[in-house]
Design a protein that fits this description.
With about 500 residues, this protein is α+β, with helices and mostly antiparallel strands. The protein is built from eleven helices and 17 strands. It folds into three domains: about 180 residues, no CATH class; about 130 residues, Nucleotidyltransferase, domain 5; about 150 residues, no CATH class. A hairpin with a 2-residue loop joins β16 and β17. α1 crosses α3, α5 runs antiparallel to α6 and α6 packs parallel to α7. The longest helix has about 35 residues. The relative contact order is 0.07.
Length: about 500
């Protein structure tokens, strides 16, 4: 497997002055940008020209080859990359879900293969030097940045130099217009430990980002990640301020620029946080000589908008480097589908109250915010009904639990939860993983983590058979069913 080590250019050793180097770099980046946009346009033209559902083979090199005479290898490299990205976006582009890509900038390829050499990296002892060639055809020798800031990159690069593991790389400029070289190297696996044994459970939790537990110990190793929550809260607050400024007409261009800068900063922070957290997990597994990691990322409420998929991916490839087996045990339970009109049952976890209300909005936006509760409510169940019958159905449920009403649409939680279990509705919105954070749902899900929507005894209406109500309710939580009106009693109200 390969990885990219990014190092800034610290000094120009030979080939010209610093200003000449950056002038040549800007010219090269402009050429690669033009080639990338021509290739993207040609991909769209060739795709529109065919009526086949299956994407035909795209070949855009002839269209862009005239832009860089004598640099056919660079043009081919850029075209192949753009064609690959178009293939990934094609389904959405063909259905109008997104526009075809356009490139404001594109890195300059530094090829290092058998046929073409545009990059040579060597270790001079005190620092790392690189010889590179750009669109002007000249060879430039530069010194790469070092020090404690880039200690890990330098260590990996020296290992790659000794094992001749340098591959096709690229160069670009960052936000501060400083040249950055991304060197592709072969990832070297960590020497396997002969005494590895045991399984470590790595699971997301309600109060922690991750909790690592060993099968031979009672206490776990918690990774909190509180700084990510603080970053997201601060970023959301500042973004909201900037949106208000834009709406009021206060320097709209500068407000938009500030919002983009804030988003970029947050993305960089989260990317670094993902790698830091995954390194903590794998380092702990190495110290404890664990043979297998069982990864469960089902619960995502600690930081709802965290990059959970990126975190799982980082843990997996770091485990592969360390020679540790990683088993993905995340439950594949879909998120609630509340896009149709329905009556909902929502739980306030801290107070134990349940709200029974309705929403006729087709986009499910009713659940985006709560105006009558300071808690984050959990959807226990939904009952989809036509818009004309929503109010009638809501009154039926209010009548069922009339003796347990607290105020308005709020009711005592235990009778409602017991009734939802009895009729087999608990989690029927598909969010059993969310409900499991506040309730014990071991009896409401299969061993695969999926819902059992067709529980025994339920008819098309979703209610259990009348003969099963009393026994089923009594079996669950020990709640006395005599005080609870069941579906067959709805007609009495």
């Amino acid at each position: 497997m390969n990885r990219t080590l990014c190092l800034p250019v610290a000094e120009i050793i030979s080939g010209g002055t610093k200003s000449e180097f950056y002038s040549a770099l800007r010219t090269s980046l402009e050429s690669s940008r033009v080639v990338a946009n021509l290739s993207a346009t040609e991909c769209l033209r060739q795709d529109v020209a065919t009526t086949a559902e299956k994407c035909s083979k795209l070949y855009t090199y002839p269209m862009a080859s005239s832009q860089l005479p004598g640099m056919a290898c660079v043009v081919a490299s850029v075209c192949r990359a753009v064609e690959g990205m178009y293939h990934r976006d094609r389904w959405q582009v063909r259905r109008g879900l997104r526009a075809s890509r356009s490139y404001r900038s594109y890195p300059w390829p530094l090829l290092a293969n058998k046929s073409t050499t545009m990059l040579r990296v060597r270790d001079s002892g005190e620092w790392i030097e690189a010889d590179l060639r750009m669109s002007d055809g000249k060879w430039w020798t530069v010194r790469l940045a070092g020090g404690s800031t880039h200690r890990d990159q330098i260590r990996g690069l020296r290992t790659a130099i000794n094992t001749t593991g340098i591959g096709d790389s690229r160069i670009w400029t960052d936000r501060k217009h400083k040249a950055i070289i991304g060197i592709c190297v072969d990832r070297q696996p960590i020497t396997a430990i002969a005494t590895k044994s045991g399984v470590m459970e790595v699971a997301s939790a309600i109060d922690h980002l991750l909790v690592c537990t060993l099968d031979r110990e009672d206490t776990g190793f918690a990774i909190n990640g509180d700084e990510a929550k603080a970053w997201q809260a601060e970023s959301s607050r500042r973004q909201q301020r900037l949106r208000q400024d834009r709406k009021s007409g206060v320097d709209r261009r500068r407000s938009r620029e500030s919002m983009n800068n804030l988003s970029d900063k947050m993305a960089r922070r989260m990317k670094n946080h993902v790698h830091t957290m995954s390194a903590q997990v794998v380092s702990y597994a190495i110290r404890r000589k664990v043979a297998t990691i069982r990864l469960d990322m089902t619960i995502k409420s600690y930081i709802a908008s965290y990059q959970w998929y990126a975190l799982a991916t980082a843990i997996k490839y770091k485990c592969e480097d360390a020679g540790i087996e990683c088993i993905d045990a995340t439950q594949t339970i879909t998120e609630p589908d509340v896009s149709k009109p329905h009556v909902y049952f929502k739980l306030a976890p801290l107070t134990g109250r349940v709200k029974i209300g309705l929403t006729a909005k087709d986009d499910g936006s009713r659940h985006g915010s709560e105006t009558d509760s300071s808690e984050v409510l959990v959807i226990l169940a939904v009952d989809n009904q036509p818009k004309t019958k929503l109010r009638k159905q809501e009154r039926h449920y209010h009548a069922i639990f009339a003796s347990h009403r607290l105020t308005g649409e709020w009711f005592t939680g235990l009778p409602v939860i017991t009734w939802l279990r009895a009729v087999g509705w608990l989690g029927n919105a598909g969010n059993l993983s969310q409900i499991s954070q506040v309730l014990d749902v071991s009896q409401d899900a299969s061993r695969d983590g999926h819902l059992q929507p067709d529980s025994e005894g339920c008819g098309n209406s979703g209610y259990p058979h009348p003969s099963q109500n009393a026994a089923q309710v009594a079996r669950i939580s020990g709640f006395a069913p005599a005080a609870l009106a069941m579906p067959e009693d709805i007609g009495r109200y």
